[in-house]
Amino acid sequence: MIREQEDIIIQTVCRIFIPFMQVYSLYVLAHGHGSPGGGFQGGCIFAASFVLMSIIYDLNEVKRRFAERFSVFLASLGVFIFAGMGWLCLFLGGNFLDYGVLSTILPVDPVMARYYGIAAIETGVQITVMAIMVSIFLNLLTGGLHEKDVEQAYVRVNNQ
Amino acid sequence: MKKLLGIALALAALILLLHGIEDLPPWADPHQPASVHVSPRYIERSVEETAVPNIVTAVLADYRGYDTLFETAVIFTAGVAVLMILRRFMP
Amino acid sequence: MLESIISNYNYWVFIILLVVGLYSMMTKNNLMKKLIGMNIFQWAIILFFISVGAKRGATVPVIAGAHGHDTHTLVARAAEYVNPLPHALMLTAIVVGIATTGIALALLVAIYKRYNTIEEDEVIEALKK
Questions:
Q1: Residues of A in contact with B87 (CB under 8 A)
Q2: Residue B51's domain spans which residues?
Q3: Would you identify the CATH topology of the domain C2-55+79-128?
Q4: pTM for the whole thing?
């Protein structure tokens, strides 16, 4: 069990840091086309903000936001976005992951269609990386008791 | 005993690797074989084909997008594997 | 022969890191230290790969001046930009390393819960019984 920190300096600093880190991760994702960045880097920074939240604040709060079903759902959603873009290009007549044929449904020319295809799949990669990193961290921290309510998990373990 | 064997094997690996770097091309040479065959094509034709200035993102997500798809699948599998190792199942 | 080894002096750093990781994987008794040795080994390989793609007098592989409207007349010479292929391939390698380390840590937690120790010889002793 992690006790909430009672030092007011740490709490105040982290209250400013955590939203800043999350917005910064979205900035890194969105500017991945013009400066070093992209999906993987943004996902890691987003997950780091949740790790900071679970160290400083109450662990049950983070477990309430990131229940196990939600984490696995987000991870599957990211892979589905990526593979779904590939299948969409296949249905529109091109090869798998050939973003040039997206110009038939979007009102842009084939060069900009590849630009938007790259932006879409980077979003999918960010969602998956973020969900899996928070899930691995919470599983390692609680030793498998990644439940919403810790008392319920303790009762179930003692009854086994 | 195990420590001596470990030190001997590590020294043998060190000597073999130092012997192997004499065949490598000089460092930061513009004419080495790694920078001659396919990467000039990526550098020169990246902006006109994809309109993305960052060549690494264009290579990772457009020219080699298949690798990135399966690498996302790898990290998803790792998350599921950690879940399965540590979870206690009810009988 | 000796001069070609000394002129490629940048590869020495990666070879020494690799041998440190290999030694730590082979001789340490604690399972956590073996895992850290494996991580050091893998990072040495990743850094070696990235250093192969360097070019003398070249800059970051982001094409400058491609945000405006005259991208049709933009000429990008291959000698001005660093080889982008090792960077892209090593991003994949880093993520695979994270996956491997995560699963190895989960296995360590499971071993500790089962045998209540994390030293290698004590685990082998408990397995023989």
A1: 139, 144, 146
A2: 2-86
A3: Helix Hairpins (1.10.287)
A4: 0.88
